[in-house]
Design a protein that fits this description.
It is built from 4 helices and 6 strands. By secondary structure, it is an alpha+beta fold. It has 2 domains: 104 residues, no CATH class; 43 residues, no CATH class. A hairpin with a 6-residue loop joins strand 5 and strand 6. It is globular and about 50 Å long. Bound molecules: zinc ion (ZN) (2 copies).
Length: 169
């Protein structure tokens, strides 16, 4: 799905979010500058920021010297773009950081400071990919070993679509 250009409200604290334009990527991301400091990424946008070597200077500049309110992280959040409930899950097999993802439009919401923590989890995209692949293979078992040849992003989308089907039943 493409970059959403409508004004949206923060799924955590409901304040209006501010669009920050990232010129290098020609996309906007939404940050809750007047509320909790959370960040909403449209589908796949987060992939451009979750690695240590990727540039988040525009984000850091935007949140610099801001004071943010506390958001209740246990609440179920509603996707500000498509209105579906977001699903909480860990950002990786390290199971340390819980993020909110919309399985309908692919949006992801991170609470304040979570982006930094996610970036610290893996050094490279390869490492992250390998962890995803190992995770998925652990679930599907050795009978489907052949799936190993698929790229982790494809495996993940297969799993996400199965999950979405079950979730909507
Ligand atoms: Zn907020
Ligand atoms: Zn959505």
């Amino acid at each position: 799905m493409s970059d959403n250009l409508n004004e949206i409200n923060c799924p955590a604290c409901h304040n209006k979010m501010t669009k920050i334009y990232i010129p290098e990527l020609k996309i906007n991301i939404d940050i809750c500058l007047d509320g909790c400091g959370g960040i909403y990424f449209d589908n796949r946008e987060m992939n451009r920021f979750d690695e240590n070597k990727e540039d988040i200077s525009h984000i850091l500049e935007a949140i610099k010297d801001k004071k943010f309110i506390e958001a209740d992280e246990s609440e179920t959040r509603v996707c500000p773009v498509c209105g579906h409930n977001m699903v909480k899950h860990f950002s990786s097999d390290k199971q340390e950081i819980e993020i909110d993802e919309c399985y309908s439009c692919g949006g992801i919401f991170l609470d304040n400071k979570e982006l930094g923590k996610i970036r610290a989890e893996y050094e490279t995209e390869e490492e992250r990919d390998k962890a995803v692949r190992d995770d998925i293979l652990a679930v599907i078992g050795p009978e489907l070993e052949g799936l190993k040849e698929y790229r982790p992003s494809i495996l993940k989308s297969i799993f996400d679509s199965i999950f979405t089907k079950f979730a909507s039943m």
